[in-house]
Amino acid sequence: MVNLEIGTVDNGKSMSEILKDALDAKGYSQREFAKKMGWTPQNFSQRLKKNSFTAEEWRNMAYKLGYEVRLVELESGIEFESRRKGHGRRARQVINGVLYDTHKADMLCGNFYRDGINEYIDGMAFELYVDCFGRFFVARYTDWENGSDSITTIGKEDAYKLYRKYGDGTLKDSIFI
To answer: Cα separation of 120 and 2, whole Å?
Structure first.
């Protein structure tokens, strides 16, 4: 992906003007790009004039141009990272007075569809999470009649072992220190 700052709110450009700049930077005519998007050139031209694209369309256009859309906090310059959602149902449990909630934490790894076919293995699955305070926990899911999901806290060392076995390798080891 190319990293190119082509506009901010305070430079006075509309999103359509920013898109035109990006098309020029990549050497696309409006006609060529409209076809790449599966739109008629006339429709694309009108939508550019009216600046009438959905957020998802903007994201898709950026991707097709080799860019990605990012949210950056104006004051700090820190990039927003959305939560890594898990596959399992929402699980919440209070342990030693602390509420652990899979919908308010980042999923680091799990074993859903581990064999490539079955959602659960022997009626069970798990996901490793870390919350905003750096606390690790495992959500265990069951697919059995009368089974219940549960949460168990886990130390950093054991969380790292799980991640090394089931994770995708995209996280830095420092998260586990």
So the answer is: 39
Q: What is the pLDDT of residues 27-70, one digit of tens each?
A: 999 999 999 999 999 999 999 999 999 989 998 999 999 988 88
Report pLDDT digits (tens) over 147-175: 999 999 999 999 999 999 999 888 888 88
Q: Please give the full DSSP string across 150-176, using - where no structure is assigned.
A: EEEEE-HHHHHHHHHHHS-S-S-GGGG
- Cβ-contact 30, 23 below 8 angstroms: yes
Query: Cα dihedral sign for 76, 64, 11, 15?
Result: negative
Dihedral over alpha carbons 154, 160, 161, 167 (to 10 degrees): 110
Name the pTM for this structure. 0.60
